[in-house]
Amino acid sequence: MSTEKTLPPTPKKLREAREEGQVAKSNELAAGVQLAVILLYLYTFGNDIWKDLSEILLLTFDQFEQPLPTAFAAFFSALCSFFFKDLAFMFLILFFASIASYIGQIGFLFSSKSLIPKINKLDVVKNLKNILSIKSLVELLKNVVKMAVIGCAFYYLFHQYTPSLRNMVYLKPIEAMQVTVQIIFWLWGVVVLCYIVFFLADYSYQRYELLKNLKMSHEEVKKEIKEMEGNEEIKRHRHSLHQEIQSGSLAVMVKKSSAVIKNPTHLAICIYYNEDTTPLPKVVAKGADYQALKIIEIAEKEGVPVIENIPLARGLNKDIAIGQYITPPFFHAISEILAMIKIRG
């Protein structure tokens, strides 16, 4: 049925969703990056931090015979000094690393719409349904899997280090401390690696869920195209673009392209998309063999992104004529390419 939402979202639909803050992202990356930053920071500055902590401990013992206000002032001063000297820089790195982890996933995005309170969030019945929804169960399952994976990794490492742990009673305090630190670093490193795996799995799931929720019906796609084509500005732009296509100026069309899809030297398809003036991405030029090489050469010279995708290039060459908009079977692949290009800038 035409009302069934079986088609992938159009670039316009994805853009509107992005403006509302609906993007695929995983919190696991930020957590993993933060743990990695702390691990590297302690590995680099651990000796200095340990030395300063030891001095604070000695200072505490030295202040036992001093009046409480004097001892407290000395301890507080040493603690502040320790924070600004040894920890402030780490927290600053953590802050920027966390921001970078999200920018790396979704690019630069600030959505004021997502900050506007929604009345339907006050619906108790709906909120209860959300709590008991499949999404909540998936989140619970993810947490259980994370705990199980990390627990198994910890068990394996402890099993490997069992001889060292048993022999620690025969070691000097400094040697025992070195073994302990080594074990902690190994455990921490394993957790970081686990979070990388968690991120890859979670991001794939989040993107799948987003695209599934944004699916469109045939009627919605037709309505969107009709609305865009009815805009006078878009009509003028389309007429101008059509004239350029008919003029046969290959270099001009390649230069105007948003991306070139190649296969890898036998086919080259030029895709043009402007979110303000075109309802859907359009094939503006294409060529085979020598002409394909020429298109690729011009694109690389003009800084137009060239993407190698053999099935997509073949499909576009076969099914989409020059000057035509892409059809639903190509929405998902083209949208991903355009989104990737936009994030890269």
How does this structure look, described?
The chain contains 13 helices and 4 strands. It is mainly alpha-helical. The protein has 3 domains: 94 residues, no CATH class; 97 residues, no CATH class; 114 residues, 3-Layer(aba) Sandwich (name from scop), CATH 3.40.1690.10. Helix 2 packs antiparallel against helix 3, helix 2 packs antiparallel against helix 7 and helix 5 runs antiparallel to helix 7. The chain starts with 10 loop residues before the first helix and ends with a helix. The relative contact order is 0.12. This is EscU/YscU/HrcU family type III secretion system export apparatus switch protein. It is found in: Cell membrane. Belongs to the type III secretion exporter family. It is a multi-pass membrane protein.
* Strand percent estimate: 5-15%
Output mean pLDDT: 80
Structural class: mainly alpha
Number of helices: 13
The CATH topology of the largest domain is given as name from scop
Subunit arrangement of the protein: single chain
The biggest sheet, with number of strands, parallel, antiparallel or mixed sense and barrel status, is: 4 strands, mixed
User: Tell me, what is the CATH class of the largest domain?
Assistant: Alpha Beta
- How many structural domains are formed by the residues? 3
The portion of residues assigned to helices is 55-70%
Furnish the topology, listing elements before pairings.
Blueprint: H1 11-19, H2 27-62, H3 68-106, H4 124-131, H5 134-160, H6 162-167, H7 173-213, H8 218-229, H9 232-247, H10 250-256, E1 259-262, E2 267-272, E3 282-288, H11 290-302, E4 306-308, H12 310-319, H13 331-344
Parallel strand pairs: 1-4
Antiparallel strand pairs: 1-2, 2-3
Helix pairs in contact: 2-3, 2-7, 5-7, 10-11
